[in-house]
Specification:
Blueprint (H helix, E strand, L loop, with lengths): L2 H35 L8 E15 L9 E12 L2 E8 L7 H8 L7 E7 L2 E6 L4
Length: 132
């Protein structure tokens, strides 16, 4: 084995492999950090009853030519903390490539329905549904 082939193997095979492994480990650690910060029971966020005030489907068009649009079911809600009314908006479910699927998801979130949301006591205007 010549020195040139050894350098070639080290530079073009081993280093990229190590970089990929490092990126994977970094992504997993970052994912765990985000899960720990997510709102929900078990964190410092507080549960409160909210009322759905609107439901809609938002369209997101891909910036790449030839790509289909995706549809995001979204709800608006309001809740009270300390006598003050707060409003929030959150996508529910996942994005769909068929608008009918997005509306089907929203059928579980009709206007006027009471839901539980979790808000950040340090910033009461910041609230999210807790969806597994």
């Amino acid at each position: 084995m010549s020195a040139l082939s050894l350098v070639f193997g080290l530079f073009f095979i081993v280093l990229p492999t190590l970089a990929i492994i490092g990126l994977y480990i970094f992504a997993r650690l970052d994912q765990k950090r985000l899960i720990r910060q997510a709102p929900g029971p078990g964190n410092d966020w507080r549960a409160v009853t909210a009322r759905i005030t609107a439901a809609s489907v938002e369209e997101a068009v891909s910036s790449r030519a030839g790509r289909d649009a995706f549809y995001y079911p979204s709800i608006q809600f309001e809740y009270t903390d300390g006598g003050r009314v707060y409003k929030g908006t959150q996508a529910v479910g996942r994005p769909y490539n068929a608008i009918s699927k997005a509306w089907e998801t929203l059928s579980r979130y009709h206007v006027g329905k009471e839901i539980t949301v979790y808000y950040n006591p340090e910033r009461p205007g910041e609230a999210r549904l807790w969806i597994k």
